[in-house]
């Protein structure tokens, strides 16, 4: 039996000083609980998402120095931790100093593992280079090292032998992606067991929260433990990290699997924990209590937990204590208001209603009712006079050809008037109010709007942070109901807002009292846009049109059966709609997203640096054109 402490800590990116202090405190507490081993997450000293900070040599040296402090603390306890490892005598492919994402095993004041490996640490074998990950930009993998040494990578996947209380223990050390090897040619856990046998596998990770990821990990890691007939300990960090455009929450959820693959211990999500367990390496452990079994991380409860945790952590990290929210009386601003009020307290949240002649009394009253229900601050700043002044100013400012002296007037179309309103609200009013209130102003955009650019650049797309921009519209409604029923346990978001047709109210053609709303038909377009953006093999109009032709579109998208025929009675109408949104998604919306605020990620792909895109314009494939021609001439 081995007494192990799982150190699920908050890792602060770029602060090895703070992280090391946290780790030393956890080591002291584990020692007091008679633990023989303590396990920390991947990159627990420096943090993981650091951008090109990895190119700062002084920072690398600092990380090494702090690592030595952890090694020195291992006099009577085995410490497994993640840190950057530097080989100052070698270079990466780009000519910079050789860096490894490494797992260190320290015991009795020294590092273990160099008896059967080139270094006294273990190196990440499988480096992710998808979504937010960019590991090969900075780190040298075990697979590359194997090529350099003219060895098979499996020869380098060697366990680490440690002698604890006169008992030899073979450890199989894995770093995050090494456990997600299904689609890789190299299977680290299998190779380690073959070169062992291994008594205990340890996977140290820095794995961001994603809807459904923990459910999948539990299936995969459980199967791995069972296949090699050895227990597996997974330790992940909490906190937030970012790559400049996308903010990621780290949920922890550290887990212990016995040799049969059963979950026998589980750390709470989004919470620091030092969890100690007496692990039987060969005998069966008693299955953990039902309270320790992980929740379904696809639920709206977990999504809320991630968003609330990430938003609060981000506000703390950048020092914002007050927020200003443009309150329209619609669902997005209402959910935003309820979220920030719960995090910051009502006295630190100011709702601003900014009516024009197009805003109904219905939404104005609902905006006030929302503020009253939440108990937060409220003000009304009408914009119509300034909008009229802007229109008049533009109308009275002719464009002059200085060569010929000819003049022409600017065309102030209804569309231009809509944009003037949106920009006036954000760039003038909200920015000014936020400065006067000592706050930041929020971006309330949802993912549906971000996908097709249904927002105004420098207008409602403005703000310091987009907390809700990785949620589709249907998820916004789910979150609204959850906030009422579970978080506040009363109706803070008026039911009338939830029932109201979603509308920007920028013209009389968007009158909510007449049931006129946004051009996006959310029950269908949410799922269409999700196929464009979130599917692992991203879908294009060719896929959509083929599914439409085959009669399986709703099944493939996941929307309500029969909806497409109701919305689009003819094929031409369906194609017109599809092409309209595809052109926006791959056209002007790209320019808007590039300039959007940082997005808080919860889904399998979020906008920002998680979604690499270039301004190339729209394109329809050859096969799409052929299917379209066939359908329209049947």
Automatic annotation (TrEMBL):
Residues 2-281 form the CN hydrolase domain. CDD domains: GAT_Gln-NAD-synth, NAD_synthase. GO terms for biological process: NAD+ biosynthetic process. The keyword Nucleotide-binding applies. Gene3D superfamilies: Carbon-nitrogen hydrolase, HUPs. The keyword Nucleotide-binding applies. GO terms for molecular function: ATP binding; glutaminase activity; NAD+ synthase (glutamine-hydrolyzing) activity. Belongs to the NAD synthetase family. It is an enzyme of class 6 (ligase). GO terms for cellular component: cytoplasm. Pathway: Cofactor biosynthesis; NAD(+) biosynthesis; NAD(+) from deamido-NAD(+) (L-Gln route): step 1/1. It catalyses: deamido-NAD(+) + L-glutamine + ATP + H2O = L-glutamate + AMP + diphosphate + NAD(+) + H(+). PROSITE patterns: CN_HYDROLASE (PS50263). This is Glutamine-dependent NAD(+) synthetase. Its EC number is 6.3.5.1. Keywords: ATP-binding, Ligase, NAD, Nucleotide-binding.
């Amino acid at each position: 039996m081995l007494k192990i402490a799982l150190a699920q800590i908050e890792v602060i990116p770029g602060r090895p000083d703070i992280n090391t202090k946290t780790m030393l405190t956890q080591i002291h507490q584990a020692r007091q609980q008679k633990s023989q081993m303590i396990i920390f997450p991947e990159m627990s000293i420096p943090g993981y998402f650091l951008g090109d900070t990895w190119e700062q040599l002084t920072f690398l040296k600092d990380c090494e120095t702090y690592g030595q402090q952890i090694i020195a603390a291992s006099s009577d306890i085995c410490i497994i931790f993640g840190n950057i490892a530097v080989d100052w005598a070698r270079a990466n492919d780009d000519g910079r100093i050789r860096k490894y994402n490494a797992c260190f095993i320290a015991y009795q004041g020294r590092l273990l593992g160099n008896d059967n490996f080139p270094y006294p640490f273990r190196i990440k074998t499988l480096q992710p280079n998808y979504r937010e990950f960019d590991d090969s930009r900075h780190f040298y993998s075990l697979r590359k090292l194997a090529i350099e040494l003219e060895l098979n990578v499996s020869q380098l996947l060697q366990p680490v032998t440690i002698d604890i209380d006169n008992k030899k223990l073979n450890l199989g050390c894995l770093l995050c992606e090494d456990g997600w090897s299904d689609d890789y040619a190299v299977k680290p856990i299998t190779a380690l067991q073959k070169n062992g046998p291994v008594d205990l596998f340890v996977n140290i990770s820095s794995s961001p929260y994603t809807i459904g990821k923990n459910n999948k990990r539990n299936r995969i890691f459980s199967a791995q433990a069972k296949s090699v007939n050895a227990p597996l300990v997974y330790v992940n960090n909490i906190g937030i990290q970012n790559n400049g455009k996308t903010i990621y929450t780290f949920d922890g959820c550290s887990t212990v699997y016995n040799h049969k693959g059963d979950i026998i211990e589980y750390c709470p999500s989004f919470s620091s924990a030092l969890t100690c367990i007496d692990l039987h390496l060969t005998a069966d452990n008693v299955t953990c209590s039902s309270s320790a079994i992980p929740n379904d991380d696809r639920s709206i409860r977990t999504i809320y937990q991630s968003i609330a945790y990430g938003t609060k952590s981000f506000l703390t990290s950048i020092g914002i204590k007050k927020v200003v929210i443009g309150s329209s009386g619609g669902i997005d601003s209402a959910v935003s208001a309820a979220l920030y009020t719960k995090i910051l307290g009502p006295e630190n949240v100011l709702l601003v209603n900014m009516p024009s002649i197009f805003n109904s009394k219905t939404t104005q009253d609902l905006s006030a009712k929302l503020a009253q229900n939440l108990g937060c601050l409220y003000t009304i700043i009408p914009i119509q006079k300034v909008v009229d002044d802007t229109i008049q100013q533009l109308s009275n400012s002719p464009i002059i050809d200085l060569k010929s002296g000819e003049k022409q007037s600017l065309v102030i179309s209804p569309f231009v008037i809509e944009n003037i309103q949106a920009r006036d609200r954000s760039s003038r009013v909200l920015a000014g109010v936020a400065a006067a209130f000592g706050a930041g102003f929020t971006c309330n955009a949802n993912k549906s709007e971000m996908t097709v650019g249904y927002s105004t650049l420098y207008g409602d797309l403005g703000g310091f942070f987009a907390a809700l921009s990785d949620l589709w519209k249907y998820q916004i409604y789910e979150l609204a109901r959850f906030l009422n029923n579970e978080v506040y346990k009363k109706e803070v978001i008026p039911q009338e807002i939830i029932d109201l047709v979603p509308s920007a109210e920028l013209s009389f053609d968007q009158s909510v009292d007449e049931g006129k709303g946004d051009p996006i038909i959310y029950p269908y377009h949410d799922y269409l846009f999700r196929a464009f953006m979130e599917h692992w093999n991203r879908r294009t109009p060719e896929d959509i049109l083929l599914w439409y032709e085959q009669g399986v579109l709703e099944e493939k998208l996941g929307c309500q059966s029969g909806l497409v025929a109701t919305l689009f009675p003819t094929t031409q109408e369906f194609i017109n709609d599809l092409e309209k949104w595809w052109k926006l998604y791959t056209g002007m919306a790209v320019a808007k997203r590039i300039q959007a605020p940082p997005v808080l990620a919860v889904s399998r792909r979020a906008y920002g640096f998680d979604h690499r895109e270039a301004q190339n314009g729209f394109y329809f494939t050859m096969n799409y054109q052929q299917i379209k021609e066939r359908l329209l001439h049947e």
